[in-house]
Specification:
Blueprint: E1 3-7, E2 10-14, E3 19-21, E4 26-27, E5 31-35, E6 41-47, E7 55-58, E8 61-62, H1 67-78, E9 85-91, H2 101-117, H3 123-133, E10 145-150, E11 155-161, E12 169-174, H4 184-194, H5 198-218, H6 221-240, H7 251-265, E13 270-274, E14 280-284, H8 289-297, E15 304-308, E16 315-318
Parallel strand pairs: 7-9
Antiparallel strand pairs: 1-6, 1-16, 2-5, 3-4, 5-10, 6-9, 7-8, 10-11, 12-14, 12-15, 13-14
This protein binds ligand DP6.
Ligand DP6 binds near residues 12, 134, 184 and 185.
Amino acid sequence: MKMWAQAQPNIALVKYWGKRDLARNLPAVGSLSITLDALYSRMSVDFLENPGSDELLLNGESNTAMLPRVSMCIDRIAGNDRSAARIQSEFNFPVAAGLASSASAFAALVLATYEASGQTADTLTMARIAGSVSGSAARSFYGGFVELTAGSKDIDVESIADPEDWPLKVVVAVTETGPKRLSSGEAMIRSGKTSPFYSSWVERQADDLAMAREAVEKRDFEQLAVVSEHNCLKMHSVMWTSRPPIVYWNNATLACMETVRDLQKRSEPVFFTIDAGPQLKAVCLPSAEETVRDGLSQTDGVVTTYTSGLGYGARVSEQL
Ligand code: DP6
């Protein structure tokens, strides 16, 4: 039976934006995220008998765009003198469009590579390898509410609450399906070099993390809403004040923010967050899920919506 590894995207409520160490891809700030359950990436790695180059299939079609990072990730586990690999991947959502596809993809890839090479490692070791390729991927090894701490030598990651401890819902409003204009990695390096707001962003992150962690511990939705929206808009202010400016939003992104504001005025328990792309993610209590989905799907410019609960971290599965 062929073994596949599956991981789900995670959405940061307190964001990772900035690198402390480029060579090791160490984040400049800690972050706090929620892992989804309805969207997934599945990966399977086969090492070939004959030497040659790696081959990546994405939903059945050959893909070269992601291949360099995929090959680098496999090298970090199986070594540079390994045989060529055939990597199959499946996604049930758009790739590289600001829906955290790289987070779930690299978490699944690290697990699939360990599986294929017959090696074993603990979750934190695998999360650190995934994070060295794509910072947010480290968090997709864990389920529910996940906190990543940025140390000077390495990261630490842990789940601070399980999905069923506080079963929040996420409605993703997709406003563009194409790939994003600038990768988050390049964009955050630019912000670190050029935004006058960058240093205060880094300095104040510990306060936001403490407030979000406390909100999760107390299951205080209002507190989580306030700190998440603040942290999101602060990250985008750092992007906007970079040179040249980085603006991922479109008209529909702003229209979705208005929709969320209207719902909040009607006392619906919902807040928004936006990553390095034009999609808006609305986080809500289960009671508001339908109203939030209806509101966002009827918002001008929204192409489609995805609804998800919270899920668990990366795992190995048999493909049926
Ligand atoms: C805005 O993990 O994609 O989604 O480490 O360069 O691959 P690299 O960056 P990546 O950045 C994610 C940025 C973000 C915020 C977050 O997920 O915390």
